[in-house]
Structure formats: C-alpha cells, structure tokens
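The records we work with from here on pair a chain with its fold. A complete example follows; check for yourself that the lines match position by position.
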Amino acid sequence: MSYRPFVVKRSPFFSINQLENIEEAMLRILEEVGIAIIDDEILKQLKSCGFQIKGNRAYIDRKQVLEFLDTERKNNGNKFSEEPEPIDTSSHKIGVSLIEYAQWVHDIETDKIVPFDTERLIEATKLLHVLGLSGPPGCPVDVPAPIQSVVQYWVAATYSKYGRRRIDPKALETLPYIIEMSDVLGEPLRHLPIYIFSPLTLGSESLKCVLKYTDRLSGAGVSNMPSAGCTASINVGDAYALSVAEVIGSVILLKEIIDLPINWGIGLFPMDLRTLAMVFGSPENFLLHLTTNEVNAYFHGTAWYPASGNIHTIAKLPGAQSCTEKTCIMTAGALLGARWFTSIGLLSLDEIFSAEQLIYDLEIRDHVQRLVQGIDGDCDPERCLKDVIDGIQQKSFITLDSTLENYRQFYWHPKLFDRQFFPAWEGEGSKSNHQKAHAMIQDLLSQYNFELDPKIQSEIDKILAKAKAEFLR
C-alpha cells in the first residue's frame, strides 16, 4: 500500500507589516528603556565597551541593533518569507521525549501526588529504559538542592543506557560535578543556557555558570519566558516586541563580555490571571507556540516552522483534562507536520511525572501516528474484481489474501484502549484503562535489565560521593 499522508497547511498569523512594527517597537524599547543589569561588574564592563549606562540599565543604540540583525539575517541566508519551511511529512513515525524538571510524582497505588525522592526516580528511570526513552524524568528532592542535579545525573546514567544526556546543572556550585560526570560518561558539557528574566533583566545563576566556565564551552544559548498579561503586554504583538528586545538586547550585550558563539530564541507564554499559573495545554499556548516560530524566523532571517511539538498539560492527575489537552495538541501539531513531541508523562506543565500518564501519552502518540499516516486510495480494477468475486463466494472478505496481507498496515491496534463491544469487554473482566495501564507498568518494570560499565560506574560513584561529602555535612 502507498499511503498519502494526512497533512494540513496553514497561513502565517503575522503579516510582514505587523512584524516590521514589532521590530520598530523593539528598537525603541532598547533605545529608551534598555536592559537592567543585576551584576555591577558586568555594568562596568559594558560601560567600558561604550554602552550608555544609567543606573543599572544599559541602553543600545538603534544602529547597533540593526547591524546585529543584518548580520544575523545574512548569515542565515535571508530566507524569511510568508511561506513556511518545507517539512518532509512522508514519514508518519512520531518521536517523543520528556524533560527532567519534575519534583513531584504520581503514586499509582494511592493516586496521590508525592515528592519525587531518589527511590522513586530510580524506578521511573528503569521504566523509561525499558521503553527506550532517555531520562531521568524528574529531580530527587530528598537530597539538598545543590546536589539534586548531581544525584539526578547519577541515577540517569546508572539505571538507563539512554541516561548519558547532560543535565541542566541549575546552580554554579553544582556545575563542577556535572562537568566531571559528563566527561566520564563521554558526553562532555560544551554548551550552557542563559535565562533572561522578564521584563528586560539580564543576570542570573545561569549567566554566572557561563562566565565561570567560558574556557571549556563551545557556545551558549539565550532564551526567556515572558507571559502575556503578566510580565509582558496582553497585546500579543506588543508582548513579542518586548520579548525580542530582552533577548536580542541581552545577546548584543553578552557578545561584548563573552567570547563564545551565542544562539538565541524568543518565547511568549500564556498566564491565567485568575490563578497566576502558566496555562500550558491551553489553546492559547498552542497558538503562541506557532506564532513564536514566525517571530523567531523573521528576526533570524530563516524560514518559519509551521508546527509545534509539545504535549504539555496543566492537569495535576491523569484523566480527562490531561488526555484531552495532550491529544488536541499532538493531533494539531502532527497534522501541521511535527514529528517530534516533548513532555510525555508530565503533568502540571513539568512539575509532576506520572507513569500512568506516560502510558496514555504513548497510546495517544500511536493513535495520532496512524491518523497522519493517511490513506491509500489506489484502485486496481483487476484486483478489485477478483476480490469482489472471491468475497461473494466466501461470503466474507475476512479470509481473502488481500485482507491478510494488508490488515495490519491499515488498522492500528491499541495496546491500551479497548475496541470491543460491551459483552466482550464485560466477559474479559470489565477492566478500565486505569487498571490496564497499571498492569502494563508492572509488566514493563519486570523486563528491566541494565548495568552500566563497572569502570564508568566506579568513576561516577566517586564523583557523587565527593558531592555528598561537601553538601551533606
């Protein structure tokens, strides 16, 4: 069978004129409002580089910003247009991943949310290993904050062959141990993030990490998380102007004090003003992901990516809300062309890990994967006539060779969801998806079998012991 993928094309949300207005507003913000600098030493360095400094704010001349943008766009080939980036949708296979920030975990035995301690993190990492997913899925909160990332990295590497992915160190005092462990594991840490505070504030623990270890890095990345109506304007275009200003302005300043290639990207996120929570999983969040792609592409001078690849939810427990939000987001994203989605198994944005939700998310992935695979509409008259004659003779098409050959490719078979009529389901014990998911988790854990190379294990054990000796006094 030759399937034609199910794909939806979309037009840009922003016109060129609207993007040009965002650029003009951004230029005025940097000239007239500037960037707040937390560190006095950095302020002195910037002043010596010729930037205008008033109080703790650095101001950037319009000409300098335009020169920066011109260089950035030329380096990227000036590819921005109102047409999106071409995406190869010939493959319907969808990849998934998760991030490691959860500090709570869903206990499937009690259906309660409990702290993510080391023992629970180990079990969750084993589950991910069996499923072929990289981890860890969270952060152990039963150890002091400075070494949580070290323990997290140790657990990931010890209990999964996919666990050598470098961990966000989060704190300067943690970083030496993460660096040493990454070297032992053969994945040297060469790139670090710099997070910008909204609105328009440069200076954080992440910046201190980069400044301290510039000599061993090959690059740094600058990003932000402004929220519409809270740390940025409720007007979307105005909010993007602020977001672009704080990122591009910070990059221009950082290039004067850090001798590293700096990649950057702007963001904008929704905030529920009644709860003051970022409402990931909402329609607004999905739309802002799409529009952020356009704004980033305009300022970088690249083609814009028309899809979005995440399945966040703000739900706290697995259930109707979490599965509805995740299914809607993945379906829309995949129809637009996305083939990689992050945040599986996570709830309340990225605060809670749930093994039960992970099973649901993988089932959702398989469902959406079959949807975007599409349909083969080919009709061979000779084959059709033969099948009709044989089907009538046998009073069914079930046993035909064509059915046997193509059945598995045409029909998706859920691992979890039920596809029987009521009497058959009742006859098999009336098991709920909740019950079946829990049984699947236990079965997967029973298949766990992994041991890290003893020499590497010994080395990372020593690093962890050093960290504990320093912070568990």
